[in-house]
Automatic annotation (TrEMBL):
GO terms for cellular component: cytoplasm. Residues 86-221 form the F-box/LRR-repeat protein 15-like leucin rich repeat domain. Signal peptide: none annotated. Gene3D superfamilies: Ribonuclease Inhibitor. It comes from Phaeocystis antarctica. This is F-box/LRR-repeat protein 15-like leucin rich repeat domain-containing protein.
Length: 323
């Protein structure tokens, strides 16, 4: 019989040499082998798209292999990805479990509705910076993607309580939720998440200015596995919220309170005493020098960001919020 072409490992081969080294032109590669090669090289979708022109056989194999893809990251093409592109991708890649659409600012609810209708196994969706997204997109996800565990809505400022309440009801396995800059979100949404999503470990509420102690207290009582919480810019938060976290969230490793000017130094020290896993603490102008220095002496704290003029430790605010 005909000997199949030898396929050498692409490791270390320059991108421009892949055509030759993989002997792709005219080759009849099975879809599973093509997928393996794609994942070994890096971005599967990029390989499939860039090599499909080599032959009709490869093009057919590439199309077949798309249906096997589990992960897709489209942020590399953020300037050109629109609703039609997303719809085309998910119509072929129906087994996706993770989809990254960060900064694809041209997409609208239609793209997310397509994802929800075609990808029932989806567990992670990143919509960071997709500012055209509204409640309709999130509601579609709750109906079509019940296995969702991670959702990034950072900067989706049209999202309201209605979407988050629906999300909490339909996607109870959530472990990661980013609502940063979703300024329309209120206590009602956070309480719904806390009541339904007991496995939540990361919650970003940066600049959700309508949040009060009631929301944080609900999180503290309903989400015992919480490890990361960012409340920066939530200026209605008081000591009561921090005390509740200290009691209910003993796994807390990172707490952002920058701009929460109603928090006292005593509350922050109490949080550190009770939350043994705390490694990162961000606070601002209310901290007294004595309290800040007391926290700084704890070598377990990797990063502390504190009041101006109080030298404690060097922290990177951007890194603190970049999750």
């Amino acid at each position: 019989g005909t000997t199949a072409p030898m396929v050498r490992s692409p490791r270390g081969v320059p991108q421009e040499g892949l055509d030759v080294s993989l002997v792709l032109a005219g080759a009849q590669f099975p879809s599973d082998l093509l997928l393996h090669l794609a994942e070994t090289i890096g971005n599967p979708l990029e390989l499939l798209v860039s090599k499909a022109h080599l032959s009709k056989a490869f093009c057919r194999a590439a199309c077949d292999a798309q249906g096997l893809l589990k992960h897709a990251e489209l942020r590399k093409w953020k300037q050109t990805v629109d609703d039609a592109v997303v719809a085309a991708v998910v119509s072929k890649c129906t087994q996706l479990t993770r989809l990254d659409l960060a900064w694809c600012s041209r997409i609208t609810d239609d793209a997310v509705v397509a994802v929800a209708s075609q990808c029932p196994q989806l567990s992670s969706l990143n919509l960071l910076g997709c500012s055209k997204i509204t409640d309709a997109a999130v509601v579609a996800l709750t109906a079509g993607c019940p296995q969702l565990t991670s959702l990034n809505l950072h900067g989706c400022d049209k999202i309201t309580d209605a979407a988050v309440v629906a999300l909490a009801s339909g996607c109870t396995q959530l472990t990661y939720l980013d609502l940063c800059w979703c300024s329309k979100v209120t206590d009602a949404a956070v309480v719904a998440v806390a009541s339904s999503c007991a496995q939540l470990s990361s919650l970003n509420l940066l600049r959700c200015g309508q949040i009060t102690d009631a929301a944080v207290e609900a999180v503290a009582s309903g989400c015992p596995q919480l490890a990361f919480l960012n409340l920066a810019g939530c200026d209605n938060i008081t000591d009561a919220a921090v005390v509740a976290l200290a009691v209910g969230c003993r796994q807390l490793a990172s707490l952002g309170l920058y701009g929460c000017d109603n928090i006292s130094d005593a509350a922050m020290v109490a949080a550190k005493v009770e939350c043994k896993q705390l490694k990162s603490l961000c606070f601002s102008t209310v901290a007294e020098k004595r309290a800040a220095r007391q926290l700084a002496r704890d070598r377990k704290l990797i990063r502390i960001i504190q009041a101006p003029g109080v030298l404690v430790d060097v922290g990177d605010l951007d890194a603190q919020y970049n999750l």
